[in-house]
Design brief:
InterPro entries: Dimeric_a/b-barrel (IPR011008), YCII (IPR005545). It comes from Roseobacter sinensis. Belongs to the YciI family. This is YciI family protein. By secondary structure, the chain is an alpha+beta fold. It has one domain: Dimeric alpha+beta barrel (Alpha-Beta Plaits, 2-Layer Sandwich). The strands form two sheets. It has a four-stranded antiparallel beta sheet. A two-stranded antiparallel sheet has the order 3-4. The longest helix is centred in the N-terminal third of the chain and has 21 residues.
């Protein structure tokens, strides 16, 4: 079963990080990615630019509208994701608990709806 971990954090928590802090953060995530790969459950990951760099579009009322920035103003923003393939939610929870983002923010776990009938 495919699960996606949506990684949320408060930008204020990382505002004062030094280049050395970022290097350590990348090492921690690199080790986590390595563990997922070694276990054979890794599908994909990405680290996103800050939410304020987003562009949001809608065609809800038939006309395309473009908005600079994220759709919602929130304290915590989506910073990245992991997609994994594991047997069940319990296995997904075990991997999510090990995710570095769980220590400083939140990890939202969602099962894939692809293939659901």
């Amino acid at each position: 079963m495919r699960y996606t971990f949506l990684l949320y954090s408060d930008r204020a928590d990382s505002a004062q990080m030094t280049p050395e802090d970022w290097a350590r953060e990348k090492e921690v995530y690199g080790a986590y990615i390595g563990a997922l790969q070694e276990a054979g459950v890794f599908i994909d990951t990405d680290w996103l630019h800050p939410a304020e760099t987003a562009t949001t579009i809608t065609r809800k009322h038939g006309e395309m509208r473009v908005q600079d920035g994220p759709f919602a103003e929130t304290k915590e923003t989506l910073g990245g994701f992991f997609a994994i393939d594991v047997p069940d939610l319990d296995a997904a929870l075990a991997w999510a608990e090990k995710c570095p983002a769980a220590k400083t923010g939140r990890v939202e776990i969602r099962a894939s709806a692809m293939g659901d009938d």
